[in-house]
Every structure is written in structure tokens, then in C-alpha cells.
């Protein structure tokens, strides 16, 4: 039987719970495609799956994002051929040498975008796409607050905001990360542990921010409510510091009739045609030079534990990939 190497989690918990196993090579069924992976994206959601914060049936594979070559086609797939370059952003099991996915979960990668770029960018950039164009649509001219501005999603957001004519005020955990965010298009970036952070943020947007994009969660939530403008929108799309303890409607009222929303990429990807359209927008920005993908960390599949430890320890910048 043909086999492949893949990361498996038997019990949820710390990074050390992951191991690389030899497993059967999956075969595509009707309407499916097997992709020989050349690069796998590493994202915070993978740590949520591994830890059990977002529960999965066990044992499980990990990894949602990757790119590679079409290796085998199931019955009825007639618009791809073996060797085509494809990517995906929500296909569980990407930490592996190959994956089988429905044809509809794959997007074609143009010649001007590398496999590593596609694997590192799709999930993060599709997140920015729905944040900026669907959740709180930005027209240009706004001043917005974006936490974790030097992370994988953050650096893409900095560039996309600048392209849209939006002033993005970022936060980050170190001065070096703040400088990185500014180099990528942030208007300014402030340190998360600055005791005067709240006052400095109010100075950046005296009337309050119309929107705060927050993937940090527990440690930034109340700060964010305090710097929103009346009728402002708090967009919670992640929990890097842990989940928000409680959303109290009275607090939203007292802070200025605020809106609270918790969007997910999966909801948007379920919309017919959205995924390929979003990928086309992203690849177009890359090919036109408006969006650069910083793959700053590369790990072998066997080093997956170190990859998660570095991500959770906030020792990474930009994007990270596993190379099968």
C-alpha cells in the first residue's frame, strides 16, 4: 500500500501532542482531487485545533492551508489536469505530504505566484478580504485599529489598508514588530505593553475608531471597547491571548451603542463563488506588487512541534510554512 507522512494528534493539548506518522496515501473519490503538497501554511487556528479550543474528532490531522501539484483526479473532475498548481485555505489535514479535497475547495495558482506564497497567504489574506470588504467594508479614508499588526494576517492587513487608502493604526508586542508593521504600510504602531496605550490610541483617532479588528481576544477586549467611536464595531476574529471572558450587552451600550461581531472565514467560503473570487483578488494584488508575502519561517514536517511553539511564543513574524 502507498503511504505518506502526516502529522497526527491523538490527544488535545500542548505542541508536544503532535507526532508525524506513516499513514495510507488517500485516494480521490468522485469530484475530488489529490494534491501532492509542496508547502503547508501554519496558522493560529491550527493551535486552536491542537489544543482543543476548537474541538475536532480525534485522532485528527492538522493544518488548513497549503499548495502543491494535482497528483490524481477523481471521477467527474474535468477542469484540472495532473501537474496543475493549486492551493486551498480550509482543508483540514494540510500538515502532510498529500491531501484529498473536493474540487470546489481548490483554487488555481497563477504563474506569478509561488507555491510557498500561495500556501502562506490564502487563509490569512482571505481573512483580511472578509474583514475589510465584508465585515466592516472600508471605502478609504478611515482610521482603523488593528491588533497584532506584525503577524501573518496583520502584515497583509497593513499592505491592503494602505492600498485602499486607509490609515491602519497597529499594535504589536515589540518595537521591532512595530517597525515591521510600519514598513508594510501601517500609519503607526504602538506597543501592547505600553502603560499609556489607551491614551496614545485615543490621540491617534480623537473621536474614536469606527472599527477595531481584534484577533488577540481576552487581553485587548476592554481596551478596544474604550477606544471605539459611538456606534463603532468591534470585530473579534481570533483568541491569541485566550477567549474573551464575557460579552456584556450593557457594556456595549454604555460604550456608545457598539456593535460586536464574530465572523469566520468558513462562513464566507461557504458562499457560492466567494473563494475563487477572493483568491483572484489576492493573487492580483500580489502580481501587481501591492501585496508581498513574507515567508519568514520555514520548518520541515518533522519540526512541527517547534513551529507551534514559536507561533504560540510570539517569536514569529509574517508567515510560516511547513515543507513536506
Features of the shown structure:
single chain, 324 residues, alpha/beta, Quinone Oxidoreductase, Chain A, domain 1, Rossmann fold, 7-stranded mixed β-sheet, 6-stranded parallel β-sheet, 15 strands
What does this structure look like?
- The chain has 324 residues and is an alpha/beta fold.
- The chain has two domains: 3-121 and 294-323, Quinone Oxidoreductase, Chain A, domain 1; 139-262, Rossmann fold (3-Layer(aba) Sandwich), CATH 3.40.50.
- It has helices at residues 44-51, 115-135, 152-164, 175-183, 197-204, 221-227, 249-254, 265-269, 274-287, 304-312, and strands at residues 3-9, 18-24, 32-42, 65-73, 85-88, 98-102, 107-108, 143-146, 167-172, 188-191, 209-214, 228-236, 259-261, 295-300, 319-323.
- Strands 3, 4, 5, 6, 7, 14 and 15 form a seven-stranded mixed sheet that branches. A six-stranded parallel sheet has the order 10-9-8-11-12-13, sandwiched between helices.
- Helix 2 packs across helix 3 (152-164).
- The longest helix is centred in the middle third of the chain and has 21 residues, at 115-135.
- The protein is globular, with a radius of gyration of 20 Å.
- The two termini are 20 Å apart.
- The mean pLDDT is 94.
List the helices and strands and how they pair.
Blueprint: E1 3-9, E2 18-24, E3 32-42, H1 44-51, E4 65-73, E5 85-88, E6 98-102, E7 107-108, H2 115-135, E8 143-146, H3 152-164, E9 167-172, H4 175-183, E10 188-191, H5 197-204, E11 209-214, H6 221-227, E12 228-236, H7 249-254, E13 259-261, H8 265-269, H9 274-287, E14 295-300, H10 304-312, E15 319-323
Parallel strand pairs: 8-9, 8-11, 9-10, 11-12, 12-13, 14-15
Antiparallel strand pairs: 1-2, 3-4, 3-6, 3-15, 4-5, 5-7
Helix pairs in contact: 2-3, 2-9
Amino acid at each position: 500500500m502507498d503511504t505518506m507522512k502526516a502529522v497526527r494528534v491523538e490527544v488535545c493539548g500542548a505542541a508536544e501532542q503532535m507526532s508525524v506518522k506513516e499513514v495510507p496515501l488517500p485516494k480521490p473519490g468522485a469530484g475530488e482531487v489529490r494534491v501532492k503538497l509542496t508547502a503547508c501554511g501554519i496558522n493560529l487556528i491550527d493551535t486552536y485545533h491542537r489544543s482543543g479550543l476548537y474541538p475536532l474528532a480525534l485522532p485528527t490531522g492538522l493544518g488548513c492551508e497549503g499548495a502543491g501539484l494535482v497528483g490524481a483526479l477523481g471521477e467527474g473532475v474535468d477542469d484540472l489536469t495532473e501537474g496543475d498548481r493549486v492551493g486551498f485555505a480550509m482543508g483540514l489535514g494540510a500538515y502532510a505530504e498529500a491531501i484529498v479535497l473536493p474540487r470546489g475547495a481548490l483554487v488555481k495558482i497563477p504563474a506569478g505566484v509561488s507555491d510557498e506564497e500561495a500556501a502562506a497567504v490564502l487563509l490569512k489574506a482571505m481573512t483580511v478580504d472578509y474583514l475589510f470588504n465584508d465585515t466592516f467594508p472600508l471605502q478609504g479614508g478611515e482610521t482603523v485599529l488593528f491588533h497584532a499588526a506584525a503577524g501573518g494576517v496583520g502584515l497583509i492587513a497593513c499592505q491592503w489598508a494602505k492600498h485602499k487608502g486607509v490609515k491602519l493604526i497597529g499594535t504589536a508586542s515589540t518595537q521591532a514588530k512595530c517597525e515591521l508593521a510600519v514598513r508594510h504600510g501601517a500609519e503607526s504602531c504602538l506597543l501592547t505593553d505600553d502603560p499609556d496605550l489607551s491614551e496614545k490610541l485615543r490621540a491617534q483617532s480623537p473621536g474614536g475608531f469606527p472599527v477595531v479588528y481584534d484577533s488577540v481576544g481576552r487581553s485587548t477586549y476592554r481596551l478596544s471597547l474604550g477606544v471605539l467611536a459611538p456606534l463603532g464595531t468591534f470585530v473579534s476574529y481570533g483568541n491569541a491571548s485566550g477567549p474573551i471572558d464575557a460579552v456584556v450587552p450593557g457594556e456595549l451600550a454604555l460604550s456608545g451603542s457598539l456593535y460586536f461581531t464574530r465572523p469566520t472565514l468558513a462562513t464566507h467560503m461557504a458562499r457560492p463563488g466567494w473563494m475563487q473570487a477572493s483568491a483572484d483578488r489576492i493573487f492580483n494584488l500580489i502580481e501587481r506588487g501591492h501585496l508581498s508575502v513574507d515567508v519568514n519561517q520555514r520548518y520541515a514536517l518533522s519540526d512541527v512541534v517547534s513551529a507551534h511553539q514559536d507561533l504560540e511564543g510570539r517569536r514569529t513574524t509574517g508567515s510560516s510554512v511547513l515543507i513536506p
